[in-house]
Amino acid sequence: MIEAIDLVKHFRAVDGSVVRAVDGVSLSVGPGEMVGLLGANGVGKTTTMRMLATLLSPTAGTARIAGCDIRTDPLGVRRSLGYLSATTGVPDRLTPREVLCSYGRLHGLAEEGLGERVSRLLATLGLESCAGRPCGRLSSGQRQRVSLGRALVHDPPALILDEPTSALDVIGARDLLRLLAELRGTGRAILISTHRLHEIERRCDRFVIIHGGRIVGEGTRDSLAGASGSLEEAFFTAVAGAEG
Amino acid sequence: MNAVRGILAVAGFQLRRMLSPQRLVVAVAGAAFPAAVMLAARRIAGGLDRDFGVVLLYALVPEALCLLGLLVTMCPVVADELERGTWQHVVVRPGGRRSLLVGTFLAAVGWTAGVALLSLALTLFAAGLDDSPRLAGMFAVLVLLSCLGRAALFALPAVIVPKRALVASVGAAIVVEYLAGFLPAVVNQVTVSLRLRSLLVEWMGWRRNLPESLRLFVDDQPPVVQVAAVLVLTAVLLTAASLILAFRQFPPAEEA
Predict the structure, then answer these.
(1) Region for B23 from its dihedrals, namely left if φ exceeds 0, alpha if ψ lies in -120 to 50, beta otherwise
(2) Using the 8-state DSSP alphabet, how is residue B247 labeled?
(3) Which residues are registered as beta bridge partners of A215?
(4) Which of A183, A124, A193, A123 is nearest to A158 (CA)?
(5) Could you tell me which residues are beta bridge partners of residue B89?
(6) Domain coordinates in residue numbering, chain B
(7) Contact in structure between A153 and A142 (CB atoms under 8 Å)
(8) CA neighbours within 13 Å on the CB side: how many for A53?
């Protein structure tokens, strides 16, 4: 469902040097699977996800979302993908219902049935009681749920979530992750990045550890944790190994 | 059809953003300013010569007010989205970039034209000129053309240098509209200001008595050509901006 094949992204720095933000990342996420992309800040998680979401074009390599290639069929990718980031960017003056309807229209959803679809989505996200309140008056957890609704409004089979819990408190993060677990149960492929390992340790099916733009570890929690029994320990070991 | 729905969705939420109480107060103050200037000119001169009144009205509303309104509403089309963190959420949709640009263009034109038309009514009332209904119709067309052409012009700096769009647009307005626009050379043919001036001169019936030295600054083509020229210029500029935006990439570090 989500498949990255040897993705590379280089940026040119102000001084003219080439920064290898992502250097040959390959990963896959199947239907009904949630994969955690783990890494410290600035190691290439966001750049990888933005290439998958067609926000950035890769220097080399490619990726497929629901069978659509990011290079040759970016529109197909966008139709099949829900994208969420730490920055909710929800307009303060609009209500959750207005936000979801606007983004539904942006996806070209027909007016008939849009209201009903949005109502169902608001109920799924637990936002019914504040559906008519301007987003500026919502808590950060509620705003992030509106943002998740925005990613789900067109019912995509694949979700890419870039540090969705980083601006949330413990309860907000737990509620959001519960919602994501339910979405995985509906057969969606979910790729979620975070540097807060404890939050997703028990929720993801597999993990990919990225460091310096490269994958330095990959597997289930148990296979990565090994004898230490700790995913965090496995993460530090993988990162230390990559740094030599 | 989907493209139109996307564009209208963006235009809708951009207009909702613009309808904040603070912006409405600024808009009303902006609309009243030309009327206040006109009133002051009328008082100081102890009356108002019709031609002078029309030129002052032209300078204040289709030129100054429209330019200022569009600088505020059109220039931040990309920079605002980057700053608010909405850029990635909009452009990850099919046709998102085009919807963002054209939707914001429509909202900026609608908002600025609305304020300018309100200002036009107030300023005409303050001027107390004869034949106000005809002047109102004529200036309404000039306002619409000014908004369309200048919004498209400002779309270019907005997508090329989003974070310096305001400065670049002021530069473009000065260099393109008021420097190149007054050059008696081929280059002035691609400016909105030449078309608007030429329409004003034609519709006011000033062409016959225009001094030879001033004829260099207006175009001889009939009004329909002037209107078509602005519309073509608008389409070309918007298409160019849309193409640039389609390939524009912002590394994560640039979004903050």
Answers:
(1) alpha
(2) H
(3) A210
(4) A183
(5) none
(6) 2-249
(7) no
(8) 29
Chain A residues whose beta carbon lies within 8 Å of the beta carbon of residue B12? 102
- What's the CA gap between B77 and B54, in Å, rounded? 33
B96 touches A: beta carbon within 8 Å: yes
The answer to whether B13 contacts A98, with C-beta atoms less than 8 Å apart, is yes
Q: What digits encode the pLDDT tens for the residues A184-203?
A: 999 999 999 987 888 888 88
* Torsions phi, psi for A166 (to 5 deg): -65, -25
Look up the pTM and report it.
0.88
Strand A158-162, strand A189-194: pairing: parallel
Whether B99 and A106 lie within 8 Å, measured CB to CB: yes
DSSP per residue, A173-224: HHHHHHHHHHHHHTT-EEEEEES-HHHHTTT-SEEEEEETTEEEEEE-HHHH
Residue B253 has pLDDT above 80, yes or no: no
Q: Which pLDDT band holds residue A126 (cuts at 50, 70, 90)?
A: confident
Residue B152's CB is within 10 A of a number of other CB atoms, namely 26
Report the CATH architecture of A2-89+140-145+158-243: 3-Layer(aba) Sandwich (3.40)
In the stretch 35-54 of chain A, residues with CB closer than 8 A to chain B read 46-47, 50, 53-54
Q: Name which of B202, B201, B189 is nearest B230 in CA terms.
A: B189
Contact B252 A46 (CB under 8 A): yes
% pLDDT > 90, chain B: 55
Quote the minimal CA–CA distance from B166 to chain A in Å.
22
